[in-house]
Amino acid sequence: MPDSTKLRLGVNIDHVATVRNARGGYTPDPLRAAKLAEDAGADGITAHLREDRRHISNSDIARLMETLSLPLNLEMAATAEMQRIALDHKPHAVCLVPERREERTTEGGLELTHEEDRLARFIAPLQHAGCRVSVFVAADEHQIEAAKRIGAQVVELHTGAYCDAHTAHEFSQRDQELKAIRAIASYASELGLEVHAGHGLSYETIDQIAIIPEIQEMNIGHFLIGEAIFCGLKTAIHQMREIMDKARKVR
Questions:
Q1: Is 116 a catalytic residue?
Q2: Quick count: other Cβ atoms within 10 Å of Cβ 194?
Q3: Is 222 known to be catalytic?
């Protein structure tokens, strides 16, 4: 059983870059956001380098690797181009996510069972280079078993359906999604996989996920960047950290 008193917070800075790119130029700077997140107590920084470079850019990744003291979690599609970039920079962690150019945000988890052989070959060089490899998946036993078979060290559970049901006050669906996340987190941990969670998490939805003892890391971005408009990034992160810590101690 993992140490239930330790719950890490990874801050995703993608949407700082989204605001910058809406107008062009250099501000707001994602690297400045990463440094503020570090000062606020974040345990890591997440950045998604999309194929169309809609927010984070290649130069953002290079600058983060050069100056960041926190671990960098590079989210990316499982393509040859992204593999080359990851092998060039060797971030602490690589999280493989599905990607469609027309989507606004990552809409679901990877379908690992459809391409196990390819993904196993894809992640091997990354692990050899020293990167921890995680896969972003739905709370589904088949995906967890496939993650184990391809050699992933970490699974990140997609919490979007739970968060959407919570926001829409669809209580039956919310409870069903939460039950599935709890069960799959336990199963993944039993298989020897480290368990993370992310997507759509907010002050209102974080506590019931944070209380799950097998989950060791949360990755949160859009909500924190949105809150930062009103209260500042440090304050937003401090409040999220406080809710997470309180939930974990309640158990």
A1: no
A2: 18
A3: no
